[in-house]
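Morning!

This is the sequence you dropped in the shared folder:
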Amino acid sequence: MKKSRRKTVRIVSFLVAVIVALVAVSTVSTVKYMKTKKVLNAGRERALTELGTHLDSISLNLDKCLYASTSPMIANVSTEVWRASTAAKTNLSEITDGEAELSSIYKFLSQVGEYTMTLNEKSASGEKITKEETENLKKLAEYAEKLSGEVNYLISEEQSGGLEFEYVKSTLAENEGEEKLYLGQELDDAKQTMTDYPTLIYDGPFSDNIDTKKSELIENLPEVSKEEAQKKAADFLDISETELYFLSECKSNIDCYSFYNADLTVSVTKKGGIVTYMIYSRFADESTLTYEEAIKTATLFLNQRGYKNIKESYYAVIDGIMTINFAFYENGITYYTDLIKVSVALDNGEITAFDSTGYLMNHTKREENGKYKYTLENGKKLLNPSLKVKSSKKVFIPTDFGTEIFAYEYHCVAPDNQEILVYIDPKTGEEAEILILLYMDNGVLTK
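The structure's back. Tokens below.
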């Protein structure tokens, strides 16, 4: 009886050991699987985000190609489309891993890059782009925009946790009644937008051009003390010095003193004692001011603080706060790099933000000698013939090299009523930049 009981205990102990070992092996395998899955999904998330960025670039540059007329600009946008399409194909292969048949999307990405490069070669040889080729570009641009919208939707769903990279629903999701999206399935649906294609951008323009060089405007001005800077800030805000408290010193391309109180933060340059920015923390109630009234309010605010030669350009409205871009304006020329931003609360006209960093970093004396190959009037002949000019003006715009050039700005309307800005270099007659205007309920934007 004892032998039988001892034998039973041994068998049970052996079975328990086996079960423990199996559980341990299973746990290790599960942990390894979860780690592998986590790494895989992280890679897919990155690839999905990059795919959206590249598709946005393709869509934007195809639009620009429609309005380009000179070989250098066509070469620039064609190269960007080709690079973005090549990178997008790589991203797509990383995401799907054979989960869905996406040959039509791959085909589109391949052919859109090849087609634009073909047009580039044709333009470089001196030939003109034909009407049929322009129509093909339009169709490619339409489908690029559709696909870009599909992928950006997937990105937003993934970020909110509403998208899975596999076809299997988790038990938790089923228990919570969540309706998950499955990437392979969704991209397979997205490819339906790619049938019948040809067989082959808040901010105003240049507002982000803040150079890292030293400011010529304030470099040689005398330094002010912390107390003097505090007085300058109080005068700028029309409040008492006692209402401000010292916050910190900031060292950058413009060294500053920062001050604060319960409602706002303000920064003043050490050299010259000039206010660089001010942010007032508050929410806006129901709007009572029109956009025109807000612009007048912001203009008066700047004039009273010594900024006389300014002109508003573009604006955006978010949560009842209207932010307006002002550029330095003198002798009929707009200097887009000399930028000042002012925010106005549309409920009572209060100034809620001010930023003169662009102006301080870029403002200097320029020379515009007027001896150019093209005038503002005959420069219109250099534009794409499909464009109708609404207005034109002389401007200074930044380059990608931290400098700026004098150019003619032409506000144009395309046959499809799309409004664009084309910048012509009067020395060479070439397009220096093309910006596409977006009119929205909350402002005028560019891309």
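Headline: Residues 2-67 form the longest helix (66 residues).

More detail when I'm at my desk.
O.
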